[in-house]
Amino acid sequence: MARPRQVLDEDILEVARACFIEHGASVSTEAIAARLGVSGPALLKRFGSKKELLKAAFAVGKLPPWLSVVEAGPDERPVPVQLRELAGTIDTFFRKMVPAFAVLREAGLMPAEWRGEDEVPPPARALYTVAGWFRRVQERGLLRAGDPNVMANLFLAGIQHRYFLAHITSQPVPSEEEDPWLERMVDIFWRGVAPE
């Protein structure tokens, strides 16, 4: 008798994410398992329930991975260079996560469940962290005076808006190679916050 196929958790989560985004929260665990070449019960044994698989697939309750990059900065490089790097890192996250938000809502997962162990919901923590980055750059005299919370809101909104718009209009978002939109957005943003 053949030995059962061993599948890594990372592989399961990648396939589950793809299935949930393609078919919505109602996709069966059997369909996900079939794509992985394992049985449905084996999949559920690993994660306990479909809801837990969904939460793990979209890292519900975990802070965005780009927060540590923002918390570590700013560094000594020119601010526009750092803004482009931050925007690229945050952009990669939202490119994947905006479609997930609809799946999570369809599954009945409410924002309170997305919070995880943290007292502050991850989206609010992200905003505070980005505002702190802008505040630290201001303290070095490298940004014009202004409310760092407003700057953070504008910066994050500029990055994520096109993904929300594409999602609700069912339009594809071109890659950065096809349309250097993100670089242009950062350049326009920088002109608005650069020291006078």
Describe this structure in words.
It is a single chain. It is elongated, with a radius of gyration of 20 Å. It has ten helices and no strands. The protein has 196 residues and is mainly alpha-helical. It is 66% helix and 0% strand. The model has no long low-confidence stretch (mean pLDDT 86).
Note the overall shape. elongated
How does the helix and strand content classify structurally?
A: mainly alpha
Biggest beta sheet summary: none
Strand content bin: under 5%
> What's the gyration radius in Å?
20 Å
Q: Kindly, what is the distance between the CA atoms of the first and last residues, rounded to a whole number of angstroms?
A: 74 Å
- Give the SSE string: HHHHHHHHHH
Using brief descriptors, characterize the structure shown.
about 200 residues; mainly alpha; 10 helices; elongated
Topology:
Elements: H1 9-23, H2 29-36, H3 40-47, H4 50-57, H5 67-72, H6 79-106, H7 111-114, H8 122-139, H9 148-169, H10 181-193
Helix pairs in contact: 1-2, 1-4, 2-3, 6-9, 6-10, 8-9, 9-10
Question: How would you sum up this structure in a few lines?
Answer:
The protein is mostly helical. It contains 10 helices and no strands.
